[in-house]
Design brief:
heterotrimer, A alpha/beta, B mainly alpha, C alpha/beta, A: alpha/beta, Rossmann fold, 4-stranded antiparallel β-sheet, 12 helices, 12 strands, B: mainly alpha, MetI-like fold
Chain lengths: 333, 288, 328
Amino acid sequence: MTLTQVQTPLLEVANLCTTFTAGGASIPAVRNVGFTLNRGEVLGLVGESGSGKSVTLRSILGLSRRYGETTGEVLWRGDNLVAMPESSLRPIRGGEIAMIFQEPMTSLNPLLTVGVQIDETLKAHTRMTASERKKRAIEMLDLVGIPAARSRLGEYPHQFSGGMRQRVMIAIALAARPKLLLADEPTTALDVTIQAQILDLILSLAKDFDMGVILVTHDLGVVAQTCDQVAVMYAGRIVEEGAVRAVLKSPQHPYTVGLMRSVPQNVPPRTPLYSIPGTPPSLLNLPQGCAFAPRCPNRSSACDQSRPELLDTGGGRALACFNKVRAGEGAAA
Amino acid sequence: MSDATVSSTQAVVRKPGRLRLALAKPGFMTGIAIIGASVVLALFPGLFAPHDPNFIDYMAVRQPPSWLHPFGTDLLGRDTFSRVIWAYSVNMQMAFLATVFALLIGVVVGALVGYYRGIADLVFGRVVDAIITFPFLVLVIAVVAVLGPGLINMYIAITLVGWVYYARLMRAEVISQKANDYASAGIVMGYSDRRIIFRHLLPNAITPIIVYWMTDMALAILLGSSLGYLGLGAQPPQAEWGVLIAEGRNFITTAWWLSLMPGIAIVLTGLGFSLIGDGLADLLRPRG
Amino acid sequence: MSETVLEIRDVSLTFRGKRGVLDVVAGRPPRDVNALNGVTLDLKRGETLGVVGESGCGKSTLARCIVRLHEPNGGEILFHGSDVFAPDQRRDRSYNRRVQMMFQDPYSSLNPRMTTSQILKEALLVHGMCGEADVPERLEKLMDLVQLPRDALEKYPHEFSGGQRQRIAIARALAVEPEVLIADELVSALDVSVQAQIVNLLLELQERLGLTILFVAHDLRLVRHVSNRVAVIYLGRIVEIGDSETLFASPSHPYSQALLSAAPSLDPDDKGSKIHLEGELPSPMDIPPGCPFHVRCRHKTPKCTAELPVLRPLEGRGAVACHHAEKI
């Protein structure tokens, strides 16, 4: 870690805010999010629905612009993507930065063959000739583990099963050899046995291509098994971040602790599970202080009055909480 | 816990009252105003018509629009403005009576075949095919030809053909609603089919039917006027827009107001129904 | 754990595929989906039986058969000894009162045009659970039971979060005082922190009301947590059934083993011993001959491709449908 510190980060996000407006009200979906990602590193963005994890991911590529306003900095090779016009973003999308989604069936065009869809990406982002592109397409399908790749180029998305479709989407996303992959719940719609295959695939491709990955998920197990770094989000903010092992072994934010303890692992069967009381706050009506305070077991008077900033706590970790949970205090065994 | 929070960013927005939103739409409000005025004119034509619609004045035949006769007079010297206003009673009645029975029959039949499917649905499918392959107007004219001209027979004819369109829409809607778990939940709760169909599915399935009804009322006025024009619907000397247009058709170059004014009334009413239909589509959509 | 409440005997269900004229001309075989292929299960009073499997394995179809949303093509389902699909039973709606189901999708399982109190009141009155005069009191009790505030009664489903809607669905099921609850992926659409709340509620209610629960889910950790016994389903057949702790601690069927090892652990260091399954679930329209799992199995032998293993008891560990269960 200390040795790699010298390399410049692949992606730097700072002060990223995305606000949607709907029906006259403005919804702060992402507030002051910041993180850095190094080459070849996998960052997990974890949180529950409405925590802003997907919006954060989409804001990196300017995909949230249509629905709201994004401010802040997304530094990519010296450029701020947030300030960039659509026309300059287009070659980056799908070329340098690729994205895969939760539901492969709706993100693939049902009317075009898989071969054509890979070819399209290559045509847009590389200067390859037709025969090179075809060769790359076969190579990609092969790489993502689709048997008989050559003959399946001419098939349509509906001819593939759910897991295979997700592989196809990865093949399309990675065809132009991007440097960063944004994965939005790529395995949520899949069964566990298939999920394991797809996650392994993403990891090994990331290693092969020396590619950074941001993986959005709600499953802490997926984070534990695939990510190097993790950022836990709640109500549009990062509340805790750091190396996966450190954060999951000794979570410091009461929300992270609660999330981990809600998972029935190493809990005596048929005993009450730990559960965080209440529900996440409405983004339209956020508490003045810490957004988690109303559900927090460690709440103090300070939490209601002011909002804790995400501060460095040493060891590459950061925390946004006034009353940090100490090791062994509440974490799952 | 007491505060309802929804689980996606989009849905977190607490929508302002649907009704207020819909009322703020100029289109919907215009529609309401037009149809509201039309209903008032239909109910109390005598209050608004300056003259007796059937008063014949041979001294004032085919007069162009003037202060005394804003829409001019016809070839018998009757005041066109008053006749157009009196026609509101007939034409609005047409809009309602020619559609409401088709709506009721269609909703019930569509809900039943959509819920039960099976042989009844197959038979229904064939009936629909048979009826919709014929142009609507041709079929209605055929039925009127058999029953004889006149308003009542026209309503019967339009209902006999028109229910199919409602039933088809309702069937599709009930089938898609039935796929929702709340319908399954009704079955699992041991509720009667009647309760599931009419208490649970129908209120959720009815929106597109109501919206279609609005456009259909506009169509019914057009159809009724067409039949009146053809001499199969309202009979002269009754003031009816189709009849009025028919009376003016031979004088379209010399006394254009005879056909144009009732024509504008048809267009305006049709527009009103369509605008309301659009507004209702927004208003009635369930939140979720 | 004594009396058997529900007996499922060799139940099978095939959904007939649509076969167009062109298919017949082209001589294509009918596309029938074999959702259930002979499932046998007992549900004992007061227990929770977990049913796990991947999507398309038939676990939800089984749940729907039990509450008579689907009718099996073969086999029978007995409730206290009487066949629930017999003509005289079918007319008897009290079965539907005594065996209740809760659904996965909290957004479609409640009628969007009815308030909570209308939904619950309907359930109470249709089954004559109480007189009209007692309804308000019963509604408040139900709200307390599922731990919702009483002002929730006058709200519509869209005003609630997913977890709150599932509480309403539970209240609706409990309104008619059932003996058996079928929970089909009850919490899988919910966030983790809310899942725990609902699971706790379910366990607490079971304790308090003596309910018998069939817990259908794909989340193994949840199933392990709530179940006394567990059945693992693969392509419409039970491949392993047994005591929850034994099954999870040492699964006997290679499919159960793979399923368990695929669930990602919360411990970043717990990466070893991954049994990775090759390939995907075969289509239920085209189930492989012999043991349906053999195409993905590491232990397959010629016997597996030829002969369908029956579910047989294995000493000290429930029942397993595998030719080689002893050796694996």
